[in-house]
Specification:
Helix content of chain B: 40-55%
Strand order of the largest sheet of chain A: 2-1-5-4-3
Radius of gyration of chain A: 57 Å
Order of helices and strands of chain A: HHEEHEEEHEEEEHHHHHHHHHHHHH
Oligomer: heterodimer
Largest sheet of chain A: 5 strands, antiparallel
Distance between the termini of chain A: 57 Å
Shape of chain B: globular
Number of strands of chain B: 13
Largest sheet of chain B: 7 strands, mixed
Number of helices of chain B: 18
Shape of chain A: rod-shaped
Structural class of chain A: alpha+beta
Chain lengths: ~550, ~400
């Protein structure tokens, strides 16, 4: 879990989605592979049953053929007087050319008198019939006039199937027996086994014949081979011949490979799809949280007009609504403080509420004109700050005594110094309100002149914040056009002329032109401020009744 | 702290991406790599005895293992081998074998029907460096090489030194040997064209069987030289039978035969029973007859033109023919290795019999390719059937065992 601490909530949600999907996909894949495995094994077993039956049939056929050859030979030999010489050997060889056995032996009693064999397998001395001590019970059965079939396994390489019977005697000179021998042929199994299937011929528990030859042994792989074993026949030496067929694990692996591939592909597709879906869901789920995060950050930066859209009707929607309510309360409180300060300024100076409103409105109209002409670009927050600064531009006068502030005559040096300090005092007051540093900066520069002749710091040109240059021009224009205790109202044209006369000296020429345009628009009755609620008084107007009461 | 978190975020991204990447890699591997699903398996078809099969299979497996390929040996009867390799469907171009061990005399026909692949020139060059020229000639047809020679053999005279005290100079001398009662002086497998036709040609005073015009006359001359040896009651039918070599070997092993004409494969039977014997190249049938030059036998591995892995199959065959493994592989077939060089010579010198067959190979010549060989075989077939009819006048089992 520690690894997740540095990750975003979206990543965590996406990952959890992917992991759940992966688990499901893997489980599904495992089930699929298991089903295919089980089905395949069943199919293999079924196929092996057919193979086993075929191999068993072939072996039985070989046994029958051997016994038929034995009987046919016995009948042929019955017509001949056997003496064991060259002629008999040649005769047996002629007989051998008509059979498929490797060796024919003729015994008188249990003594070999003549034999013929094909090579090189038939020539193997290990294939010569040995009655004692290996097969006394077979010898006994034969001497008891019973046809017998048995195995003679001398070593791993030569395992022979033998069949013997008495030669019907028409000569009356003793008992002759014929023994035919066929080496166990891998072809007996190979003919029945399809490619990929192994066969083993057992005598009891001894593997007589393994085909195809596998020097490394059978069934040594991870998966056990499918194997079937069936008894073929019980021979006269009490040996039970059994056939075992095996489908090696490689065959199963080959059969499973497509299923495994499909499983991996399914898993991969599931992961890809679940990642996309998970990411999309996480984005949707976390959108309100991100809004809240951004809103909180904006509030922290002083954006008091933040209001978040309520997109959902769940807990996150409720949280958004609560945030909006909290933001409204903070804004109301804030605007209330600002409004109170504005009231104090009104009460302290000879300004009227209308003056403050006019300055604010005209400043906003001028900013709008500047923006329209492409000379400036304002965000709503910047406009709000301009609005606040316009309202509180003279708040520093609170600290100046009324006698100085309303003195009709010329000011003394100290009085003048006190008056000139009011921008700093105002800026300090606004700064202490918090989140209004920019407004404080504007207020501090509200009496700086474009040519640097202003106060308190003698800034000039672009060093003066644009908002301050606007407020200075607007404040001067309003002072000129309104009746003051110490002066009459001047005609509009005079005021404009005065503004133009002071452009580049006291005022920023660009601001002057924008202000004149704004004034003209107002005169023409055109709307000059945008419909957005960026202005302070509009913000107040949007507020609750409580705020409205404060404004009243 | 933020830096650590950012690092953890990266780590998390990598860790979360790892399963997807590994699964994707696995999927790509599964989809693109065929070896995962199925290893290359080469099916070799051959007509070998069970014991030879095992030995040949071991050599095949060992060599295939070195090449990283699986190998399966299908041992079939000779007739089935013939049917399998010649039953080629040029439409479907499919055969159930990848490599076949066949007599080199089949290569021309197989090459004509395009059921086998030509040996690449780089393999031919390697073979020429490693293999004796006679073997290379045996697998060449036209200007191409169609098989990888694996083993050589040539008919020779195998005799019992106890019954034949001095190396015989003529077959007639062997036939006139004073042998004990119940012992045959000489046997000739009359179905062995590689020995019989050169012997008949020599009896006629010819060097090359292809010059034989009248087989009846040649046979009469041959019988005039060795006839007494073939006259034993019942013997002729045995020498005409398909198992004549086995009968000769058995009679020889039991001391009932003084000498016979046979190849290294017949000698392999005698190896089993450990009979003392000597081997010399075929002597002329009579005093004035020229030295017969038997036809050399060669078996070769051919690659099916429908083989799914021809490169692997050809590489396997080339290695078996030109590496030391050829000595063991050819021994499994009972024949002589085709590999030249000191190791092979040392192997042959270990066994005086093998040396005799090597000398027989020295005087042997390649059989003419089909159809000349076939026309000679057809001529001999007529005579053979006639002889068979004569031999059948003796009592022969009337009933063939059912199979």
């Amino acid at each position: 879990m520690k690894a997740l601490q540095g990750t975003s909530l979206r990543q965590q949600l996406t990952l959890s989605h992917v992991l759940v999907s992966l688990c499901l996909a893997l489980a599904l894949a495992a089930v699929m592979v298991f089903v295919v495995f089980v089905q395949n094994r069943a199919l293999q077993r079924k196929a092996l049953q057919r193979v086993e039956s075929l191999a068993t049939d072939r072996l039985l056929r070989e046994l029958r053929r051997l016994e038929e050859t034995r009987d046919g030979l016995a009948r042929e030999l019955a017509t001949r007087r056997l003496q064991g010489g060259l002629a008999d050997t040649l005769f047996l060889h002629r007989v051998l050319s008509y059979t498929d056995v490797e060796r024919v032996e003729v015994f008188y009693g249990l003594n070999l008198i003549v034999q013929a064999y094909l090579g090189p397998d038939g020539a193997d001395p290990q294939l010569a019939t040995r009655w004692y001590p290996e097969q006394p019970q077979v010898a006994a059965l034969l001497l008891a006039d019973r046809p017998v079939t048995w195995l003679q396994a001398s070593n791993k390489k030569t395992v022979a199937l033998k069949s013997a019977r008495r030669i019907p005697s028409s000569q009356g000179v003793g008992e002759f027996y014929v023994v035919v021998t066929a080496a166990l042929q891998p072809a007996w199994l190979a003919g029945a086994l399809p490619q990929g299937v192994s066969g083993v011929l057992y005598a009891g528990e001894q593997a007589l014949l393994v085909w195809p030859p596998r020097p490394e042994g059978l069934g040594s792989k991870l998966l056990s081979p499918v194997r079937l074993r069936q008894a073929v026949i019980r021979l006269d030496d009490d040996t039970r011949l059994e056939v075992e067929v095996l489908a090696p694990p490689e065959t199963l692996t080959e059969a499973l490979a497509p299923a495994l591939r499909a499983a991996v592909l399914v898993t991969l597709v599931v992961i890809a799809v679940s990642f996309l879906i998970g990411d999309h869901l996480a984005r949707r789920l976390l959108a309100p949280l991100n809004d809240l995060l951004e809103g909180t950050a904006a509030m922290a930066r002083g954006h008091l007009s933040v209001r978040l859209p309520v997109r959902r009707h769940d807990e996150l929607g409720a949280l958004t609504r609560e945030f909006n309510r909290m933001a409204d309360e903070i804004r109301t409180t804030y605007l209330g403080v600002i409004a109170t300060l504005a009231e104090v300024v009104e009460a302290k100076s000879h300004y009227t509420r209308e003056h403050i409103e006019r300055v604010e409105r005209l400043a906003m109209a001028t900013a709008q004109v500047l923006e329209e002409r492409g000379w400036a670009k304002w965000s709503s927050h910047q406009k709000f700050i301009l609005s606040v600064a316009a309202i509180l531009h003279d708040v520093g006068k609170i600290a100046i005594g009324n006698d100085i502030l309303n003195k009709p005559g010329p000011l003394t040096g100290s009085e003048r110094k006190e008056i000139l300090s009011h921008p700093e005092v105002g800026a300090t007051i606004v700064e202490r309100m918090g989140k209004l540093d920019r407004a404080a900066e504007i207020i501090r520069a509200c009496h700086e002149h474009y040519d640097g002749s202003g106060y308190p710091r003698g800034l000039k040109g672009e060093e003066i914040p644009l908002e301050a240059r606007i407020i200075l021009a607007v404040d001067a224009f309003d002072a000129m056009t309104q009746v003051r205790p110490y002066s009459k109202a001047r005609p509009l044209e005079d005021a404009i002329a005065e503004l133009r006369a002071e452009a580049g000296k006291q005022f920023d020429p660009v601001v002057v032109e924008a202000l004149i345009e704004a004034v003209k628009r107002i005169e023409r009755g055109e709307p000059v401020t945008p419909t957005s609620s960026s202005g302070f008084f509009r913000a107040l107007a949007d507020d609750s009744g409580e705020t409205a009461a404060v404004r009243a | 702290m933020e830096e650590r978190d950012a690092r953890r975020g990266w780590l998390f991204s990598i860790v979360s991406a790892a399963p997807s990447v590994s699964l994707f890699s696995l999927a790509v591997a599964l989809l693109t790599c065929q070896p995962f699903t199925r290893d290359a398996t080469l099916v070799v078809i051959a007509s070998l005895s069970p014991e030879s099969q095992q030995a040949a299979y071991e050599q095949l497996q060992a060599q295939a293992g070195e090449l990283g390929v699986a190998c399966e040996l299908k041992a079939v009867p000779y007739r089935l081998l013939q049917e399998s390799v010649f039953a080629f469907d040029p439409e479907n171009k499919k055969s159930r074998w990848d490599l076949a061990l066949v007599p080199a005399s089949w290569l021309e026909r197989l090459g004509r029907q395009r059921s086998i692949l030509e040996v690449p020139i780089q393999h031919v060059q390697q073979l020429q460096r490693a293999v004796v020229p006679l073997a290379m000639l045996a697998v060449a047809w036209g200007e191409s090489t169609w098989g990888y020679p694996m083993a050589l053999d040539a008919p020779a005279l195998i005799y019992n030194p106890a019954l034949v005290p001095t190396p015989p100079t003529t077959l007639a001398a062997v036939a006139r040997l004073a042998v004990p009662e119940g012992v045959l002086p000489l046997a000739v497998d009359l179905a062995d064209l590689d020995a019989v036709l050169p012997l008949l040609a020599a009896a006629q005073g010819l060097d090359n069987p292809q010059d034989l015009k009248d087989l009846g006359q040649a046979w009469d001359r041959f019988v005039a030289s060795v006839g007494p040896a073939l006259a034993y009651p019942g013997a002729l039918s045995v020498w005409l039978a398909p198992n004549a070599q086995a009968a000769q070997a058995q009679l020889f092993a039991e001391g009932k035969l003084a000498a016979f004409v046979g190849g290294a494969q017949a000698d392999a039977i005698l190896d089993k029973v450990g009979v003392p014997r000597s081997v010399v190249p075929l002597p002329p049938p009579c005093d004035r007859c020229p030295q017969p030059r038997p036809w050399a036998r060669c078996i070769a591995l051919v690659v099916s033109s429908s083989c799914a892995y021809p490169d692997l199959a050809q590489a396997l065959a080339e290695k078996l023919a030109s590496s030391r493994r050829n000595v063991a592989f050819s021994a499994a077939t009972g024949m002589l290795p085709v590999l030249g060089g000191q190791e092979t010579t040392a192997f042959l010198l270990e066994d005086p019999d093998k040396l005799g067959f090597l000398r027989a190979l020295g005087v042997a010549r390649l059989a003419p390719p089909d159809p000349e060989r076939m026309s000679l075989a057809t001529l001999w077939e007529a005579k053979f059937l006639h002889l068979n009819a004569l031999a059948k006048s003796e009592a022969i089992p009337p009933r063939r065992a059912a199979r």
